[in-house]
Amino acid sequence: GLAGRVTVAQGTLRGDQDDKGLALSGAFDLVLANILAEVISAMAPGLARVVRLGGHVISSGILRHKAGDTRAALSAAGIAHQEQIVEGDWVALVGRRE
Predict the structure, then answer these.
(1) Dihedral through CA 12, CA 60, CA 25, CA 54, nearest 10?
(2) What's the predicted TM-score (pTM) here?
(3) Considering only CA atoms, which of 94, 8, 16 is closest in space to residue 56?
(4) Is 98 helix (H, G, I), strand (E, B) or coil?
């Protein structure tokens, strides 16, 4: 029953617009990134740019021993840490843009 209320999009952080020329800054309530910790850390400013104030970023694909550095990069970009979910050697970080 959410089809009219939820839009799912896949994309990149290469520019300030999507392929249709739509502005991406502050466009999304939730951004998911399931890639390596180093890539998430490098992308942190872009992730913060596209999620709206008060929106959430969930990043996963992070090895446990790299979670602290990734959390620090997200925090420096303005994404406040809310939760860390651990499954074996893998971690997912949940944060909120403030």
Answers:
(1) 160
(2) 0.84
(3) 94
(4) coil
How many whole angstroms separate alpha carbon 83 and alpha carbon 58?
9
Q: 42-87: per-residue pLDDT in tens?
A: 999 989 988 999 999 999 999 999 999 999 999 999 999 999 999 9
Query: How long a stretch of residues is the chain?
Result: 98
Above pLDDT 90, what percent of the chain? 67
Token digits of residue 52: 């709206």
86-93 contacts at long range (C-beta below 8 A, 24 or more positions apart) = 89/63, 89/64, 90/60, 90/61, 90/62, 90/63, 90/64, 91/60, 91/62, 91/63, 91/64, 91/67, 92/58, 92/59, 92/60, 92/62, 93/57, 93/58, 93/59, 93/60, 93/62, 93/67
Other CB atoms within a 10 A radius of the CB of residue 12 amount to 10
Q: Phi/psi at 65 (nearest 5 deg)?
A: -75, -10
